[in-house]
Amino acid sequence: MENINIKINGLDVCAPAGSTILDAAHIAGIKIPTLCFLKEINEIGACRMCIVEVKGARNLVAACVHPITEGMEVLTNTPVLIDSRKRTLELLLSNHDKKCLSCVRSGQCELQELCQELGVEDENYFAGVSPEYELDDSAPHMIRDNNKCILCRRCTAVCEKVQSVGVIGPNNRGFTTFIGSPFDMGLGNTSCVACGQCIAACPTGALYEKDFTDDVLAAIADKSK
Ligand code: SF4
Ligand code: SF4
Ligand code: FES
Questions:
Q1: Which atom of ligand 2 is nearest to the CA of 154?
Q2: Does the Cβ of 80 fall within 6 Å of ligand 1?
Q3: What angle (nearest 5°) sits at the alpha carbon of residue 157, between those of residues 156 and 158?
Q4: Atom 6 of ligand 1: nearest residue by CA position
Q5: Which of 61, 94, 134, 135 has its CA 20 to 30 A from that of 210?
Q6: Which is the closest atom of ligand 2 to the Cα of 150?
Q7: Would the pLDDT of 128 be above 70?
Q8: If you measure from the C-alpha of residue 185 to the centroid of ligand 1, how many angstroms do you get, rounded to a whole number?
Q9: Average confidence (pLDDT) over 178-200
């Protein structure tokens, strides 16, 4: 296969033709932050966390979808990029519930990790419409909490492309877009097979398994049975 030579942060990097900037950065061991990207499953360039500077390009480009070309010169960590990523995180937090202390994913949340890395806190930089969603607990195995959803669509891609089920997707448009079942009927009323793969794919605490530990402990402690 033909190889392409580029420079990333001044380092020479050689990657197969057809690679994206993100692929080439991985080969070189250079970390570029991502949120919506799931290799070969969700490559939609939606979140803009992976933006980089390309010499000669008019705009910042999304590394996860931008193909490399011979001689390309890429910068991944300039002050402009760091500032842009911070604004993106603030935008995501502006309609996120930010109840991280009690979140099941606290400490393992990709959004929280990026906010920590870039020093973004509880900011409402862009005060947009912030709908409050009821939890969808209709499925026997899991809960969907759209108040923590960042609309990355990793769950919908996994459900459709990997599991071939396709029972979740975006509903509505603009600020009121949310991920859910068709006609918002509740996951338990669809043909969801309870595989849990969407939970594994989610970068935040928007999807989590139901926890029956308290019921089990209560049953063990109940001497009448
Ligand atoms: S549990 Fe499996 S089938 Fe159900 S929504 Fe998630 S990925 Fe799709
Ligand atoms: S539920 Fe999770 S995986 Fe699905 S779109 Fe929202 S944040 Fe992304
Ligand atoms: S990771 Fe590239 S746009 Fe989301």
A1: 3
A2: no
A3: 90
A4: 198
A5: 94
A6: 7
A7: no
A8: 14
A9: 96
